[in-house]
Amino acid sequence: MSDPMRIRAQAQGDKTTVRVLVSHEMESGQRKDAAGKTVPAWFIQSVSATWNGKPVMSAQWGTAVSKNPFMQFVFKGGKAGDKIAVTWVDNRGDKRTDEAVVT
Fold first, then answer.
1. Which domains are present in the chain?
2. pTM for this structure?
3. 86 with 5: CB under 8 angstroms?
4. Residues 16, 77: contact at Cβ < 8 Å?
5. What is the DSSP string of 61-78?
6. What is the chain's pLDDT, residue by residue, as a tens digit (103 residues)?
7. Which end of the chain has a smaller Cβ tally under 10 Å, C or N?
């Protein structure tokens, strides 16, 4: 299992900004190891976020996304104390969900 995501969510006015640093190796499947063998692809395929259980963001990713990617999104609504949950699923079937509280 990978390390936890670092999630920061800040409400300002009627908008909430969410910043996420995802911990994942993200192999494209095109790199070769020292022995010359191709390193198998291993990448996040989908990312989604919920605010108090309601979906606010979803994305489909592929092999072009960098190792340990950073993402940021803004949604309307949210206030201090609300919960944000971010989930990713990779091409090996691994899944991770982490939560943060809006400040």
1. 6-101 (2.60.40.10)
2. 0.88
3. yes
4. yes
5. --TTSPSS-EEEEEEE--
6. 568 999 999 999 999 999 999 999 999 999 999 999 999 999 999 999 999 999 999 999 999 999 999 999 999 999 999 999 999 999 999 999 999 999 9
7. N
